Amino acid sequence: MKRYLVATAFIALTLFSCSPTERSVGFTNWSDDGTPYKFHLGTEQSISVVKKFDELLQSKNYDLLYEHFSDSATFTYHNGEQNTLKQFIDLNLQRDSTLTANNETLKWEPQNAFSVDLDPDMGGEHVNMLYLATYESEESKSQFYANLWFYVREGKIVTLRQFNQSIK
């Protein structure tokens, strides 16, 4: 009888300790059907997609961005303006040209990134990347934080939303 109790306790402990602990926190109302969701930790894979976006943008390899975005990708800026990938690239080309012509620079450094998932069984993750941006001209220097939220699904960026905060 004692052996039976020890064996049963051992099996129960083994099963309990090996079962995955699902950790979710918070809440969101992002669902279309009203289903409440909690946030789960995302994956390094989605963060890698966003880091590749940053790498291509920093090196001004705009043509390669097409490989990392879905065909219907949208960009929404802090002022509510929304663009397609082509419009985003055109804006960057125009900005680069203006900065060069005026002997100005705009640099940004990633400060942190994390990924959360609303439903690990559904696919797609929300990746947040915070940048410290520095603008310099001959007369002035200013900085701001750019907080970008990406929605990544199947290795492609589907949406990008940007929010800025000035540093005084």
What report would you give on this structure?
The protein has 168 residues and is an alpha+beta fold. The chain is 29% helix and 42% strand. It has a single domain (41-167), classed as Roll (Nuclear Transport Factor 2, Chain: A), CATH 3.10.450.50. It contains three helices and eight strands. Strands 1-2-5-6-7-8-3-4 form an eight-stranded mixed beta sheet, with helices on one face. The chain is globular. The N and C termini lie far apart (74 Å).
The CATH top-level class label: Alpha Beta
**What low-confidence regions span 5 or more consecutive residues with pLDDT below 50?**
13-19
Q: Tell how many strands the DSSP assignment holds.
A: 8
How would a textbook summarize the main sheet? 8 strands, mixed
Rg, alpha carbons: 22 Å
Task: Report the span from N to C terminus.
Answer: 74 Å
Q: N-to-C SSE series?
A: HEEHEEHEEEE
Helix content: 25-40%
Structural class computed from helices and strand pairing: alpha+beta
Order of the strands making up the biggest sheet: 1-2-5-6-7-8-3-4
Beta-strand portion reads: 35-45%
| CATH fold topology | Nuclear Transport Factor 2, Chain: A
Task: Annotate the secondary structure layout.
Blueprint lengths: L1 H17 L5 E5 L8 E5 L2 H15 L10 E8 L5 E2 L1 H17 L3 E13 L7 E12 L4 E13 L2 E12 L1
Parallel strand pairs: 3-8
Antiparallel strand pairs: 1-2, 2-5, 3-4, 5-6, 6-7, 7-8
Question: What are the defining features of this structure?
Answer:
Nuclear Transport Factor 2, Chain: A; 168 residues; eight-stranded mixed β-sheet; 3 helices; 42% strand; alpha+beta
